[in-house]
Amino acid sequence: MAAKMPLNILKMKKMKQEGHPITMITAYDYPTAQLAEEAGVDMLLIGDSLGNVVLGYDSTIPVTIDDIVYHSRAVARGAGSTFIVADLPFMTYHGSIDETLKSVRRLMQEGHAHAIKLEGGAEIADTVKAIVQAGVPVIAHIGLTPQSVHQIGGYRIQGKDEKDAQRLLDDALALEAAGAFGIVLELVTEEAATTISQKLSIPTIGIGAGRGCDGQVLVFHDAVKYTSSYREKRFVKTYADIGDTIRTALQEYVNEVRSGAFPAEQHVFSGDQEALGSLYGAKRKVETQS
């Protein structure tokens, strides 16, 4: 398969202008990144959702910068021709700008990301501006922001009334003015997300934000049901049930080992019988003489 040319932020803005939807999906390891690139996904996100779907936490809050760097590096090795975005995890960008830029540097230099993502609205606009001025592309994330889920009262739909929808629009405009090249809208009403998308010159990427966004993102494990027990989500479409396929395959492996069906003749290696007889025969003769 011929290598594709990765997107850049100018191409993404042009895609918005021309009405070409942008595709994004999370990836946390080398084989997933390879498969996503082969499928033609535009952007890969090493999201702090890895805390929930890979590391076994009940939220994104325990995820560290070391976690994101480790997984981003693996994704970059698997998808060398795809635009890669890495999350700044919880409390890595709320202190001094020097401390924030240290985390950003790690994601870019050690994690080999092309851009970073951080959650928040107008209150982080100055931080976004400083990161952009340092030469790093930034995609912002508003609406349902998992890192602050306890503060906003749980996993609630955002933009349901006029006041809240206006707040989201104000946040989006502030982040655009600060230099963000795109904005993720999570669990936002379709009406609010569509209005925001129309008002901005930069792309919006929706997850549970309806059909009016300039692109869509899903968590990989949701899209293919790569889990033990899957909880259905209204805003997710699942395209395969990999969890069930893996479980069934491993059950068959266990049964075949226990029954002796595996390994079969085609799975073993045989040497030259005369040479083997000479070798092991000689060994047995020496052992008998001793």
UniProtKB/TrEMBL annotation:
GO terms for cellular component: cytoplasm. Its EC number is 2.1.2.11. The keyword Protease does not apply. Pfam families: Pantoate_transf (PF02548). CDD domains: KPHMT-like. Mg(2+) binds at D48, D87, E119. Gene3D superfamilies: Phosphoenolpyruvate-binding domains. Homodecamer; pentamer of dimers. This is 3-methyl-2-oxobutanoate hydroxymethyltransferase. It comes from Paenibacillus nuruki. The gene is panB.
